Amino acid sequence: MTRCLGGIWGSEYHLYVQPPQTPDRNIALEMIRVTEAAAIAAARWAGRGDKLSADGAAVDAMRFVLGGIPMDGVVVIGEGEKDEAPMLYNGERIGDGTAPQVDVAVDPVDGTTLTAMGRNGALSVIALSEKGTMFNPGPTFYMNKIAVGPRGRGAIDINASPTDNLKELSKRLKKSVQELGVVILDRPRHDDLVAEVREAGARVISISDGDVAGAIATGWPNSGVDILLGIGGTPEGVIAAAALKGLGGEIQGVLYARNDEEKKIAEDLGYSFTKVLMTDDLVASDNCYFSATAITDGDILRGVRFHDFGATTQSLVVRSKSGTVRTIETFHRHDKLQEFTTAGF
User: Fold this and answer.
1) Where are the alpha helices (DSSP H) in the chain?
2) Residues β-bridged to residue 284
3) What are 68-90's pLDDT values in tens digits?
4) What's the confidence (pLDDT) of residue 13?
5) DSSP for 113-171?
6) Which of 280, 255, 250 is nearest to 146 (CA)?
7) CA 331, CA 100: separation in Å to the nearest integer?
8) Residues forming beta bridges with residue 233, ordered by sequence position
């Protein structure tokens, strides 16, 4: 419009009214479709003693659904190198190629043995963060980890002894050491760790597999888990970091080499086995996403149920930027599931 100022015509200017701000797209809600598909596919193999088929079905289903998600993603943590994994391999481009550009970490079955044996605690998980912000484990398969939920954040130090960490966490949580629940993978390498935790008076919650679920449990109310300790997978540590950022928790890790050859290969590529990797080192973005769907029953989510209607799933979805944590129960019709028959349903 044109305005007259004091009888003199001023220059023309346009008045723009700022439209209301709307939240940007929450990709995590779309990721639920991905983990649901993988979980249902894997659940058909639960208890059948064939972990390779369970994992293969989940990979096929996850890749099938990911192909239609509006994003330009690169798999940073996947099923292995291209010559080992035909799908969801490290470096694979996924999505339909449109914005946003993201790093992707996938674990179609966190707990393949749990699934094959029909045991509790198996999940299908995926994590996303802005491009270039996710730690690439490269040849480092294992790391020593410590993780806590939001109330324990700032009270842990991976370079301190397990006993000292339990004492500090006890003070922070205002509960006795004897009341602390400590998740530790059941491995011979943890015999001394388990002995020290028990000597300190804490309760050991031993898990055979699935340390992503163990890390998440530290940030979940009434899970009975207060801290995760021990050596587990580096990829799982990165995925857990994305979840804990949204849950308000903390994870620290130090890379662990199984032998001198593995250590030398990694060090030649610039990896350090003394540096403490904090949560922000594992996932640098403040806008990351995490989705998990239970394959078998767990402390947080109920596993896949098959019935006359189709299937029912329970999922957890987390976004760090908004701090939202959602649990979602979904009913899937049989006739719609058949649309994914090529993906292993």
Assistant:
1) 27-43, 51-66, 112-117, 162-173, 191-200, 211-218, 234-247, 260-268, 279-282, 334-337
2) none
3) 899 999 999 998 776 566 788 88
4) 35
5) HHHHHT-TT-EEEEEEEETT-B---TT--EEEEEEE-GGGTTS--TTS-HHHHHHHHHH
6) 250
7) 29
8) 142
- Asked, as a colleague might, if the bond just before 221 is cis with ω within 30 of 0, I would say no
pLDDT digits 0-9 by tens, 254-267:
999 999 999 999 99
Query: Which neighbouring-strand residues pair with 283?
Result: 134
Task: Report the candidate in 36, 29, 26, 30 with the shortest Cα–Cα distance to residue 330.
Answer: 36
Buried b (16+ CB within 10 A) or exposed e, 22-59: eeeeebbebbbbbbbbbbbbbbbbbeeeebebbbbbbb
Q: Which tokens sit at 249? A: 């928790």
> Taking the model in full, what pTM does it have?
0.87
Place of tokens 């490269």: 138
In whole angstroms, what is the distance from residue 258 CA to residue 306 CA?
Answer: 41
C-alpha closest to that of 255 among 280, 277, 224, 228: 277
Encoded tokens for 293: 């769907």
- Residues with Cβ < 8 Å from 68, sequence gap 6 or more? 96
State the residue for tokens 């198996």.
Answer: 122
